[in-house]
Amino acid sequence: MDRFIAVERALRTATPDALLPSLEEELITQYGAADVTLLMADYATTILQPVTALPYTKEPIPVHGSAPGRAFNWQSPHVEGADGNGPVTVHLPVSVRGDRIGVLSLRLPDWQEGSDTAQELTQIVEVLGHEIIVGERDTDLYLQARRADRLTLAAEMQWQLLPGRSCTRPEYDIGAQLEPAYAIYGDNFDWSTSTHDLTLTVTNGMGEGIDAALLTNLAVNALRNARRAGLSLADQAYLADQALYGQYRGTQYLAALLLRFDLATGATEIVDAGSPKMWLVRRGKVRQVELSAQLPLGMFEDTVYMTEHFRTEPGDRLVFVSDGVYDVTSPSGERYSERALARALTSTRLLPASQVPRAVLQELAGHRGVIDADDDAMVVCLDWRGRPSD
Questions:
Q1: Could you tell me which of 355, 353, 330 has the C-alpha nearest to residue 340?
Q2: Alpha-carbon distance 47 to 49, whole Å?
Q3: What is the C-alpha separation between 274 and 251, in angstroms, rounded?
Q4: Could you tell me the pLDDT band of residue 125, with boundaries at 50, 70 and 90?
Q5: Would the CA dihedral through 104, 109, 111, 115 be positive or negative?
Q6: Which residues form the PPM-type phosphatase domain (predicted)?
């Protein structure tokens, strides 16, 4: 345990840009490690990029079909060379409360599952993940390592709004993805949890580029402001509606789906204010949940919003998609939501929530064919376990 404390202290005291050199030095000293590499998942979650100083010289590693990618996808250590004698290469997933950040790869003299070394290194990468999240306030090093290409300014604004791309609690798992990752416009998602409930919002702003990003920024921050003031779900929608109408006078508006889940009972309040749609996977069957559509936020002055109720059951999977997903047509003219989306949700039912959005978007690309996308796309997946009763 003394060596774990030494590594943890090094991470806690290192400057944000020096986390990796400090970690590498201690892992070599305390654990006999070599070839320590930190890989960050890019915005599209298709590659893992080494964290190095600019200009980058190391090649990215694909998430699918690689040993580090296996650790990243399944969020468990993956070991290469464990069947032979001598050193092994270990890939350890780096995540914070279910938000997948990347992978730490290193060579060790040996690796025994369940050993003190295995347990300590698993805890060390948890500390590393927290330090990266905190460090991103003061350095661009890790954000730059996430980029396989330059973000548009609109995409930069949208990604900075997000709470993360996945989240895990005893009651639920969330996974989400936006596409095209480097040029998104108005789609966005947000979530917040408390002792008693989970609030989830998915939004789809009109327009493109900076105009769409500015609209979404105003809406998301208005919703957060109302939520943090303790307002009801309907009043959150009303406040955001007024903020948007006050700024744009109805010339621009934003579609949104707002949900609040009671963690103890699964009782769910919903405000449907536009185009994002909700699908339910329950006991192996897929269906769209029909909701009472209300006006988008900011379309008219003094719009009054009403909540409707739904019961989320343990084992349910809820999937939320924007019109850039369900309205996409195949070369033959079939909308994705007619049959293909249900097939995609059925075929991905065994995947964890964090992997479902990427898998659905890949299926969407196949459905679209060679036709270029004319809208951004969003998929959010919520796996509900609920809180065990006393």
A1: 330
A2: 6
A3: 16
A4: very high
A5: negative
A6: 169-384
